[in-house]
Design brief:
The protein is built from six helices and 45 strands. Helix 4 runs antiparallel to helix 5.
Length: 781
């Protein structure tokens, strides 16, 4: 027993299976290590509540497609967890006692979490026993004809093993029914098809704010230039579980295809065609406003795989694409049509978790892996339920022509054999991405004025060469021609294919254009060129009674010059509204488009400057002011546009604010009707003192007043406010009136009215109504 691994070093689940795996069953039967695992699983402890664990295949497919790779996830519902597990895939009805009972193959994503089980390579188990709530692996489906598959998982939590023959820890998948002409499972390593085939790849990006609203980058969203190629099995552009090359890294992080194209072309005969499309700014627009980008490529018996990638930007290092897609069928023919939805994958070179995360290189570099909905809570694709990520793009690969003798076992349903694919491929635009040209000029007149064959020419201008190390050819193009009145079609015995179906109309409402193509099946015996048309266009009308809210716009203008003379800038183009909606609403069709542009690399600025001086003192002694600094120019001023002076705001302690008061009011009436009294005047505080400013002055002033002497008949009857002349009857004093101001000094008044005057009395003249005033609310406001 000492030869076996100890519980301290072996994975936990292996130790729990230890006694079962290393002891013979009754009867002495020996069915191998993997068979013992199955027996251990079925003998594990069970109890109710096992639905807290779940085995899931991303997207929850009901069937598998032979040769396709799927993500398999083992989950524990909170607060449950597991320490160990085993995962196997069996042919339905098999017991796992022989190697042939296992089907498909697993691929490790994270070596810190998972590993292949020792002595039973078809099974996957934990790398180290620890608490975990989720693991994931990739599983590649078996070839066609393998029948249904059972994926089983067992869970170890402490010393309890959970296992089910049916339910949440078991998946049953059967092979997807095949549609004739579609790509199926990966054929044998050696392709048996004959001749060559030509395909058109069309990329449909549906990454938009409507479909993926979380943190969607509204301003800079785009797809980078698509780059790829048709190649042999000896070359791998990228693959899950592999490491990104420098070319893949530059596409994934920078959106630049230049290094990737260089790597592809360096493979020589391993590559047949380089696949390229332009970048798309913004990432999504309706197809009636912008056609989906497409590219054509060819395959043959040795170079029958197709791979490509394109970055969704902005992002840390996220891409979509296909890797090693085989277009050769096991019936020795060529796939007619392939349509696949794409989810993003991580290149393993940057550790950002959101679209606009700052650069954070992953050191050491990690393996390429698909993104999942459980990667990080801040991820725009995060789903706490672990659901499938909604695809961000779709790719359509259609066969458009075949050349040479074909040897497919099953007859092909499409007649697309042409005389020479190479003749057609001359029309492909192999312009390097770093060369920016103008449009082609009109064709010149024919060099022959007779019916002898001549040539005509057209030209285009090189606007910019973004990479001086990459040449920019093809500024001239030539075509055979004859003089006026001569027809190159008369001696033609060209055999043409049938016209393919009309393309979709270029508009979704109103009048637009559509096109269709055909191909040359056989050229004239005399070796002359075939001048029959291979493309037709015609007008088309969609929904003649268009919505009243639709509008008609002009064609796009030419792109404006780039906003910079070197480095990366932007350029813009516009179109005009020809006819607004008839219902008077606003036209919702985009009339402006902006995209990035790249000019030659910026060189060092040819001006020499001194260091900046220290900042000057602030222009004020208190409050807000400005300060400046300068630097000197040491070279020719004509070649330097750098600023020589800078200014910025500065803040000192607040300035003292003195008290501000209003003007004095008018003097009030004297408070006595006779004898000595006083009168007052007031003023108000308009601004309280702040930050140590001067205090407020007095708010009320008094001065003496004397109207006349009070008349008295006796020494004891001195004039006073309360003295009442003889024979004069007065009412009591009224209450004081409300103060004229709530603060800052106001006035109150009270009155004594004459009640009755004595007739014939000598004091009648002094029997008058009386009034008194006084100051009030003299406190500061």
């Amino acid at each position: 027993m000492d030869a076996f691994p100890s519980p301290d070093t072996a994975p936990l689940i292996s130790w729990l299976f230890f006694l079962l795996l290393h002891s013979e069953p009754a009867g002495g039967r020996s069915d191998g290590y993997c068979g013992r695992i199955l027996r251990a699983q079925t003998q594990g402890t069970r109890r109710d509540g096992h639905h807290e664990f779940r085995l899931r295949m991303e997207g929850d497919p009901e069937s598998y497609k032979p040769g396709n790779t799927y993500r398999v996830v083992l989950l524990a519902t909170s607060p449950a967890y597991f320490r160990g597990f085993t995962l196997i895939a069996l042919k339905e009805g098999r017991e796992g006692t022989t190697d042939d009972d296992y089907t498909g193959h697993f691929q490790i994503i994270d070596e810190e979490d998972t590993q292949y089980m020792t002595n039973c390579p078809p099974a996957v188990t934990e790398s180290t026993p620890r608490r975990r709530t989720r693991i994931q692996v990739l599983w590649t489906a078996p070839p066609s004809g393998s029948g249904c598959v059972i994926l089983k998982a067992s869970i170890v939590q402490k010393r309890i093993i959970y296992f089910q023959d049916e339910g949440s820890l078991t998946l049953r998948l059967c092979e997807k029914e095949r549609v004739f002409g579609e790509a199926t499972e990966a054929p044998p390593d050696q392709c048996c098809a004959c001749g060559t085939a030509k395909y058109r790849l069309t990329f449909f990006g549906n990454w938009s704010e409507k479909v993926h609203p979380k943190d969607y980058p509204r301003r800079a969203n785009h797809w980078s230039a698509l780059i790829g190629g048709s190649h042999s099995r000896g070359y791998v552009l990228w693959e899950y579980g592999g490491y990104a090359s420098e070319g893949v890294r530059q596409v994934a992080e920078l959106g630049s295809p230049i290094k990737m194209e260089e790597e592809i072309r360096q493979k020589g005969d391993e590559v047949l065609t380089v696949i390229k499309t332009k970048a798309q700014w913004p990432a999504w627009q309706p197809l009636n406003l912008r056609a989906a980008p497409s590219a054509e490529f060819s395959v043959d018996r040795t170079r029958h795989l197709m791979s490509f990638l394109t970055m969704l930007g902005p992002s840390p290092d996220w891409n979509v694409g296909l890797s090693g897609e085989d277009l050769c069928t096991k019936e020795c023919g060529w796939v007619q049509r392939l349509e696949t939805e794409l989810i993003p994958w991580d290149a393993g070179t940057d550790s950002g978790v959101t679209y606009e995360s700052p650069n954070k290189p992953t050191l050491p570099q990690e393996k390429i892996r698909p993104l999942t909905s459980l990667d990080h809570p801040q991820s725009p694709f995060y789903d706490p339920e672990g659901g499938a990520i909604t695809p961000v793009a779709r790719v359509l690969v259609e066969r458009i022509a075949r050349k040479g003798e074909q040897c497919n076992v099953v007859p092909d349903t499409v007649d697309d054999i042409v005389a020479d694919i190479g003749q057609e491929e001359k029309e492909e635009d192999d312009t390097p991405e770093t060369c920016i040209y103008s449009g082609w000029s009109p064709w010149s007149a024919c060099s022959s004025a007779t019916c002898e064959k001549g040539r005509r020419m057209r030209q285009r201008m090189l606007k910019a060469q973004l990479d001086l190390s990459v040449p920019c050819p093809h500024t001239q193009d030539f075509q055979p021609c004859m003089g006026p009145g001569c027809s190159m079609e008369e001696p033609s015995t060209c055999m043409m294919s049938e016209w393919i179906s009309w393309s979709a109309c270029s508009v979704s409402c109103g009048m637009g254009m559509r096109s269709r193509e055909r191909y040359v099946k056989q050229y004239p015996e005399d070796g002359s060129l075939c001048q029959l048309h291979t493309e037709e266009t015609e007008k088309c009308v969609v929904n003649e009674e268009c919505s009243p809210s639709s509008c008609v716009v002009t064609e796009w203008t030419e792109w404006d010059p780039c906003s910079v003379t070197c480095g990366v800038g932007i350029r813009r183009r516009e179109r005009m509204v020809k006819m607004p909606p008839i219902d008077g609403s606003m036209c919702k069709t985009e009339v402006a488009e902006v995209e990035k542009c790249m000019m030659p690399e910026c060189h060092t600025i040819p001006c020499m400057l001194s260091p900046w001086s220290d900042w000057s003192e602030c222009s004020v002694t208190c409050g807000r002011g400005l300060r400046t600094r300068q630097r000197m120019l040491k070279s020719d001023p004509a070649e330097c546009t750098e600023e020589l002076e800078q200014s910025e705001k500065c803040m000192l302690p607040e300035c003292p604010v003195d008290c501000m008061v209003s003007d004095w009011s008018e003097w009030s009436e004297c408070n006595k009707s006779c004898g000595k009294g006083h009168t007052i005047r007031t003023r108000m505080v308009k601004l309280e003192p702040q930050f140590g400013g001067s205090a407020c002055p007095e708010m009320i002033q008094r001065k003496k007043c004397k109207i006349r002497k009070c008349r008295t008949k006796t020494k004891s009857s001195l004039c006073c406010p309360t003295c009442v002349p003889t024979g004069c009857r007065m009412q009591p004093w009224s209450s004081w009136t409300d103060c004229t101001k709530p603060c800052g000094g106001g006035i109150q008044e009270r009155f004594m009215m004459v009640k009755k005057r004595a007739k014939g009395s000598s004091s009648t003249g002094s029997c008058k109504d009386r009034k008194e005033i006084r100051a009030c609310n003299v406190h500061l406001c």
